[in-house]
Amino acid sequence: MKLPAYDDLAFDADGAPSAWGLFGLDDSIGRLNLITPETVLAAVALVRRGVSFGLDAALDAFDPPLDDTRAPARHRVLRGGETDVTDLDDALDDYFPQISSQWDSLAHIAARPGVFYNGRSLEDIERGANTIDHWNARGVVTRGVLLDVARAPSHPRDADHGPVAISVDDLEAARERAGLTYSPGCAIVVRTGFVAWYAGQDHATRVALSQRLEAPGIEHSEAMARYLWDSGAAAIVSDSFATEVWPPDFSIDAEPFGFLHRVLIGRLGFAIGELWDLEALAEDCAEDGVAEFLLASAPLHLRGGIGSPANALALK
Asked: Would you say residue 1 lies in a domain?
C-alpha cells in the first residue's frame, strides 16, 4: 500500500502524528505490514556470497543489566539419564527476553498513559493485541541497510558510550557514504559502536552505567520521526540501549517527541531493535563496500509477549 507522507498524517491536539487505522483497526504489527512477498524476494536476491552474521549479543553480555528493572538470567545445565552417557538440558531462571539484543513489540510502550498503538487499552494488550507473537507468525525477513555512523570521520570520540544524539543529517551522511537508498519495508540498522565499547569496560564501569545510564542514539525530534516515516522503512535497529539517545527528555516542553518510543512505537507502529551486535557485519560491509543484506529474524512465539530476543541473522 502507498502510505501518506508524514505531514499528511492525522495529528492529535498534542501535536503527535498517528498511523492508527492505516493498516486496519485490528492490526497488531504496524509497519511490518510493509514487508510483502515482493519485499522478501528482493531481499533474498541480495545474498550473493553465501556468508552470514549472527546479530545477537550474548544473553549475559550486559551485566549488570542496563535496565535496573531487569535481572540477569541464571543459566543452569541439567543432567539426566542413568547411563554412562549423561544427557544434558538447559534451564533459564528469571529470564527477561529483552535483557540483551531484542525487539520491542507494539505492546512495549504506550502512546500516552494507558493507550497503545491503534488505540488499544492495557486490557486489550492483556488479551493479546500488539504482542510479539503476531510477529512470530510471519517472522521478520526483509532488506537491511547498515548506516555505520560510528565510522564517520566526524563521529565524536565519546559517541560510543555518551548521550550523543544522532541527527537526521548524520543518518543521511552515513546513507550517502554507503551508496544506499531506502526501500519499502526495509530495516534501517544504525551502528553507534556502543556494544563494542561496552564489551571492553571493566565491572566498575558497567555497574556505574547501570545506575546512571547514558547512551548514544537517534535524536528526540519531530525531524527524526518525519525522516523515518517517509523513508518507507518497517524497522529501526541499533547497537545501542534504546536506539534513541538516552536518557529521554521527559519535560513538558519536549512532548511529544522527547521520548521518541511513544511516537515511533505507540503512534507510528515501528518495529524497534536494540542492543544488536553489529561489529562483524559492519567490518564485512566496510571491506566489501556492500552495506545491504538479507535480514532474517525469528521472534519468540510467546503468547502475550512484550518483546523478544532478536534471533537475527544478516546474510550477504
From this structure: no
